[in-house]
Every structure is written in structure tokens, then in C-alpha cells.
Amino acid sequence: MEEILELKELLLKGDIKGSLTLVDELEEMGRKDIINNIRSYAVILLLHLIKQQAENRTTRSWDVSIRNSVLEIQDLNERPKSKGVYLNSEELRGILEKAYPQAVNKASLEVEEGRYDSRELEQKVNRVKILNQAMNLINADD
């Protein structure tokens, strides 16, 4: 919260330019935090989609985790005041693509009780199909 105190000082001094620069920095920090949270939920979402595809089955637990991750991503991405979003579809796709390797690594420990290392698992599943499925779930109006 040092930034808030610094902003207060700048405003009291009448330094509008410095204040606006700091506001931009604060906005960017908030955006990065939202993106990091979305990425964390994207890893969970992709992990379970990978497991479903690799094992050609699903469980109630995986289904619930997928739904919860989608809901969290949708909620985090929503801008409450402007009714817009923080990340458009292209940016969301980029986040999913960045999260995918981590999801594969985690899934490699769980699919068929850790039978595959991450490289083997990656060859066993269809990356594009999983990413498309994730995007479709996120973009669906529930």
C-alpha cells in the first residue's frame, strides 16, 4: 500500500503528472494480478481436460473442477464498472497457451497414476482440441 500513500503525497503536492503515472502503474499491477489469477485457474481447467482426454473418461470431481475453474475465470475477467472484460478472446487464448505446459506437467503425475512423463503425455493428447475446448467453455454464456 506504499503506492497509495505515495499517490496521496503526489496529489497533496499538486503533482498531477506524477499522480497519473502512479495511477497507471497501479492499474497495471492490478491487471497483472488478475491475469495471474486467471492463469492459475487456467492450469486447473487444462489439467482436468487433459486427464479427461488422456484417460478417455471423466469423474464427477473433474467435472466440478472444470466448471468451477471456468466460473472463476469468467468472474475474474469481468470488469464490473464498464461491463467489459480485462482480457479479450485472443488474450485469453494466449493465457491458456502459456498455462498448457504447466498443466501437462501436473497431469503427468495423475494420468494413469503417473505412467507418462510430460513429453509422452503431450503426444498422447491433442493440444489444439484441449485449448479449443477450454476456450469454448470460458466463452459459453451460462
List low-pLDDT spans.
none
Distance between the termini: 36 Å
Strand content: under 5%
The outline comes out as: elongated
CA-based gyration radius: 19 Å
Describe the protein:
It contains six helices and no strands. The mean pLDDT is 93. With 142 residues, it is an all-alpha fold. The two termini are 36 Å apart. The longest helix has 40 residues. It has one domain.
Short description:
With 142 residues, this protein is mainly alpha-helical. Helix content is 79%, strand content 0%. The chain is built from six helices and no strands.
Summary keywords:
mainly alpha; 142 residues; elongated
Compile the SSE list and pairings.
Elements: H1 2-13, H2 16-55, H3 60-77, H4 89-110, H5 118-124, H6 127-139
Helix pairs in contact: 1-2, 2-3, 2-4, 2-6, 3-6, 4-5, 4-6
